[in-house]
Specification:
Blueprint lengths: L4 E2 L2 H8 L4 E2 L8 E9 L2 E8 L4 E8 L2 E8 L2 E9 L2 E10 L2 E10 L3 E8 L1
Parallel strand pairs: 1-7
Antiparallel strand pairs: 2-3, 3-4, 4-5, 5-6, 7-8, 8-9, 9-10
C-alpha cells in the first residue's frame, strides 16, 4: 500500500520561498496547501492529503485554471532547486503501474507527466 512521503516545510521554503499551510476549503486538518507565485498573474497551487495519499497540482493564469492534475496513490511529493529555478516532483504508483510528474515552477512553469504500465 502506498504511503505519501512529503518534503519538509523547510525544503519548500528554501526552494520556493513559501511554506505549506493547512488548506481551508476541504475542512480537513490533514490537507496541506502551497500557493506559489510565478508572476503577478500566475501561480501554482499544490494540495496534498497524507491520509489519502493524494496530490492535486493546479496552474492558474489570469484568474483561470490552465492545468489541473490529480493523483491518488501518490508516493512522493518533493521539491528541488534546478539551475536558476525549482521544480516539484510527484511520484505515484501501485502494482502494475507507476507515474512521475516534474513540474518546473521557476523561472517559468513547465510540466512533464509520465505514466507507465509495468
Amino acid at each position: 500500500m502506498p504511503e505519501l512521503e512529503v518534503a519538509s516545510d523547510e525544503a519548500w521554503l528554501d526552494c520556493l520561498g513559501v511554506s505549506p499551510k493547512t488548506e481551508g476549503i476541504s475542512g480537513g486538518e490533514y490537507v496541506r496547501e502551497l500557493r506559489i507565485p510565478v508572476t503577478d498573474a500566475e501561480q501554482v497551487q499544490i494540495t496534498w492529503d497524507v491520509t489519502d495519499d493524494s496530490v492535486r497540482v493546479r496552474h492558474h493564469r489570469d484568474g483561470g485554471i490552465v492545468f489541473d492534475m490529480f493523483r491518488e496513490m501518490a508516493t512522493l511529493l518533493t521539491v528541488a532547486k534546478t539551475g536558476l529555478g525549482a521544480e516539484v516532483i510527484l511520484e505515484s504508483g501501485s502494482s502494475g503501474w507507476s507515474g512521475r510528474a516534474r513540474i518546473q515552477i521557476l523561472p517559468a512553469v513547465f510540466i512533464e507527466d509520465t505514466l507507465l504500465r509495468s
